[in-house]
């Protein structure tokens, strides 16, 4: 039998259940205003190789969070109406790397999300409290988004506290709101393309520990310095080992932003995971993976908590 192939086929490195480090149809074009010229003009865009001493060994914190949907809920209000709810748990913490890795400042919170006016609290026999939490609507998307927002908020709380150390902080995900200190937003999944078409080949040309020139993202609520860098040579897609980083632009001038971008670009590839150790390699950095595992343990066993919740619901008067 003869097989005729007309296309080259490559497989994404991440398992299908985790999505893809690059959006299935390619990153969507941004609607955020972008300034491509603060470091170099667009005509001069090319891969930037940080100086050899840019990533000197220094303490770095990684901050991340996890969430889990414990159960769906039906809430019957005082007037007899029924509304959808979501019982969830979330946690956030930090891991400090300085020759060794130490996990610290881990926090766990739990909630019952709904859009009802008087949000109920659910308490298990052994004292687990799922506080009433607001969701914009009772739809599946709104409930999930409310849980995600609470987790992100807790991450930012942890980041603000560890920022008091004055050391470098890498926060998993977009920065969105400012965290004082040397805080870096770390975006490992590229859903949005912030580059003009003529600049995209620069990303494909990046070698490991090289970055693009800095560009500025500006909205009504934030201004960020941003850049792309390559972590490893894993994968066949030209963007598959690419991450985007961002730092606040307000209060940080170009020389400091350039120095920090060079430091981060030289530092992060040292923590890049390998496919045989992490299914989301290389973007799910080793410290972040270890922190996620610890936080999931802190959430408790899902089956045990499910049984506690069912007992708590059964004893609530109707």
Account of the 3D structure:
This protein has 318 residues and is α/β, with parallel strands linked by helices. The chain has five helices and 13 strands. It has an eleven-stranded mixed sheet, sandwiched between helices. The protein has a two-stranded parallel sheet with strand order 1-10. Strand 4 and strand 5 form a beta hairpin. The longest helix has 23 residues.
List SSEs in N-to-C order. Answer: EEEEEEEHEEEHEEEHHH
Q: Segments where pLDDT lies below 50 for 5+ residues?
A: none
* Largest beta-sheet characterization: 11 strands, mixed
What is the CA–CA distance across the termini?
Answer: 68 Å
Q: What's the total count of β strands?
A: 13
- Based on secondary structure, the structural category is alpha/beta
Strand content: 25-35%
Using the alpha-carbon principal axes, give the shape.
Answer: elongated
Biggest sheet, strands in spatial order? 2-11-12-13-9-8-3-4-5-7-6
Computed CA radius of gyration, to the nearest angstrom: 22 Å
Q: What average pLDDT do the residues reach?
A: 88
Total helices: the number is 5
Helix content: 10-25%
């Amino acid at each position: 039998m003869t097989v005729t192939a007309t296309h080259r086929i490559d497989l994404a490195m991440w398992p299908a259940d985790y999505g893809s480090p690059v959006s299935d149809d390619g990153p969507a074009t941004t609607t955020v205003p972008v300034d491509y010229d603060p470091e170099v003009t667009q005509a001069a865009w090319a891969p930037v190789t940080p100086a050899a001493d840019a990533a000197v060994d220094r303490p770095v914190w990684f901050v991340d969070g996890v969430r889990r949907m414990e159960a769906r809920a039906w809430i019957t209000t005082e007037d007899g109406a029924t509304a959808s709810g979501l019982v969830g748990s979330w946690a956030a913490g930090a891991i400090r790397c300085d020759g060794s890795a130490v996990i610290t400042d881990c926090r766990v919170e739990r909630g019952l999300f709904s859009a009802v006016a008087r949000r109920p609290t659910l308490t298990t026999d052994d004292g687990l409290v799922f506080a009433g939490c607001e969701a914009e609507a009772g739809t599946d998307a709104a409930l999930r988004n409310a849980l995600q927002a609470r987790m992100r908020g807790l991450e930012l709380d942890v980041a603000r506290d560890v920022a008091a150390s004055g050391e470098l902080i890498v926060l998993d995900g977009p920065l969105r709101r400012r965290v004082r200190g040397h805080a870096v937003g770390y975006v490992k999944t590229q859903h949005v393309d912030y580059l003009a078409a003529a600049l995209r080949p620069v990303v494909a040309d990046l070698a490991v520990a090289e970055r693009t020139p800095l560009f500025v993202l500006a909205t009504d609520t934030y201004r960020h310095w941003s850049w792309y860098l390559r972590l490893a040579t894993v994968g066949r897609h030209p963007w598959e080992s690419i991450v985007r980083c961002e730092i606040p632009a307000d209060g940080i001038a170009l020389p400091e932003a350039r120095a920090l971008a060079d430091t981060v670009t030289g530092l992060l590839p040292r923590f890049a995971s390998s496919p045989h150790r992490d299914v989301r390699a290389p973007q799910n950095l080793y410290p972040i993976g270890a922190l996620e595992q610890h936080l999931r343990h802190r959430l408790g066993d899902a089956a045990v908590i499910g049984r506690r919740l069912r007992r708590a619901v059964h004893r609530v008067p109707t």
